Amino acid sequence: VRHCNPEIDTIFEVGGQDMKFTSFTGDGTVKEAKMNYSCQAGSGQTLENMADVINLNVENSLQQAALKADRVPVIDSTCGVFMEMDENRLIAEGFSKEEIAAAIVRGTAASYYFKFVGGSQHAGDKCSAQGGPPLGKAFLAALAQVTEKQIEAYPHREMFGAWGQALDIIENIKQLEAQGKSCESAFRGWDLVDMPFEKRRVSCKELFGEKSCGVRDCQLEVFSIEEDEIITGGFCPRGNSESAKKPKTNYVEKYHKIYEKHFKKQGCLLGELSSLQIDKQETVTVGIKRSTATLG
Prior knowledge:
This is ATPase BadF/BadG/BcrA/BcrD type domain-containing protein. By secondary structure, the chain is an alpha/beta fold. The protein has helices spanning 44-53, 61-67, 80-92, 97-117, 137-147, 160-178, 204-208, 251-266, 292-295, and strands at residues 10-14, 19-24, 30-35, 127-131, 151-152, 197-203, 219-225, 228-232.
């Protein structure tokens, strides 16, 4: 956004599931930056859930209906659940669809600004909004009303995250070239659309065999593009792999190898106990349980 306007000192960013807030000092240094990690009240998903109740579309019909409202009823904006309960109350009290649309749009904007951002003490003077929900004129109007600030909205603001990343990469390439270094792109090219692609869903045990912990037996999604294989899902690093050409260290596997090495050296496996010749009168047996904290 500062590529579009270097004077912007505050960014309000609202996504489907996440919310972000960034403020800058005069020289462009990040002053404050935060992102939600739990409650989604004020996010696009909350807005969509509430729009579905009155059969409106977030991108179009909800925005149009909200702008036609003669009055804006107040709903509880402290929690997504309470907001949805209040929406049902407005329906029961006979408010029009336009008024309810205005209430939930303003309620979502208020939840984002007051509950997440923290109010006016965090915002600067030159504010910009980006993300999916700020594409709507009603949401921008509501955000301007609750913040009491002029909100600047630039084209393609729903893609600013990706655009900013691209600009950062270009800057890094220029710096490398200035140092006389070469840079090779990992971009596959537009031929990617014609490359063989496969997606399958398998269990962790089916994919990794004995290396699987066998406790949860997570369901993993495996994406294959030519020779590359990407694994997602699950509760441990096995379900968060990178490209097959650039594998990351699998610390779960590394831990188990070290553990088995020392366990076999100092003791024996459970299945081997019955084969041991032990004089019970002269020997004290100490058992080490292989679960919870012991296994990690």
